[in-house]
Amino acid sequence: MVTKPIEDIVKALKEIVDNNGPNYLIDEPFQVYTELIRTGNADRKTAAALLHLLAGGLLENADPGNDAELLSDSIRRECSINKRMADRLAAILYMLYSDDNRRKWHRKEKEGLTQFLNENFIFDWKGFAVWDAGNGTVDCHYEARIILRPTKAVSEDKELVQLLSKNPFTTKETICDLFSKRLREYLDYEFEYYCTEDDYYQPVVEDFGSNLEYDLKQWSEENGFEYVSCEGDGDDGGYEPKFRKGWY
Asked: How many domains is the chain built from?
């Protein structure tokens, strides 16, 4: 079996931490092992020994950046690993948790949130609903470009807090996706309700704009944003009668 260079394994582990946060090695040791094996960035013996170390909780109670020799002794004692492998694991962790890497990780914490709070939240929405009069239907469409401004209250959003607790390196793009999904679901529901509320009168899709502005202000207040602007327009495909089979 080919033994992978320590530097390659450290590089792979650093990438995992960079993408998933500083606690990922502790919280998801088997996923770390699987990723190392899948990508071929670590040989099986080293990856298995690392899994044993992480799953055993040693990393939670040790300072891997303190002293490689002391760390090796601790690994041998706690994990019952021979000196050669213990030294190898200690060298990997010592390099991974270097002062330089720790400083970079510290600066990166909640960087995505800071970026998100300092920019407008721009969301392009396309709404679709069908008004059904029983003997015919109307396809309703509305498109809008929405601009909202995040406030500090966004930082207290429960779902976002949970996301950042799991991975403080969560990117601005991921946070945007979180609120985009939430806003899309909200507007889709409101548009569906607007278009199908009355069974007897065809909705005037072009007039949805006034409702949309009200809905956006309401959503913004409830989710920690300020309403900035909304530009949009709607249309329908015209009334389409339903023809029963056999009609002429």
From this structure: 2
Of 90, 108, 126, the last residue of a domain is 108
User: Of the candidates 132, 130, 152, 141, which has an alpha carbon nearest to the alpha carbon of residue 241?
Assistant: 132
E strand segments, the chain: 121-132, 136-150, 225-236, 240-241
On whether residue 248 sits in a domain, the answer given is no
Would residue 67 be called left, alpha or beta, if left means φ above 0 and alpha means ψ between -120 and 50 degrees? beta
Tell which of 71, 86, 108 closes a domain: 108
Residue 90 belongs to domain spanning = 6-108
The position carrying tokens 């002391």 is 70
Give the separation between CA 58 and CA 194, rounded to whole angstroms.
57
Q: Which residue has the tokens 């389409």?
A: 240
Q: Quick count: other Cβ atoms within 10 Å of Cβ 82? A: 10
Helix (H) or strand (E) holding 113, with range, is helix 111-117
**pLDDT per residue as tens digits for the range 138-165:** 899 999 999 999 999 999 999 999 999 9
Q: What is the pTM of this model?
A: 0.85
Which amino acid, one-letter code, is at 236?
D
121: domain CATH number is: 3.30.479
| pLDDT (0 to 100) of residue 159 | 97
In a domain, 152, yes or no: yes
Q: Is residue 245 part of a domain?
A: no
How does 20-37 read in b/e, with b if 16+ C-beta sit within 10 Å?
bbbebbeebbeebbebbe
Same domain, 172 and 201: yes
DSSP code of 155? Answer: G
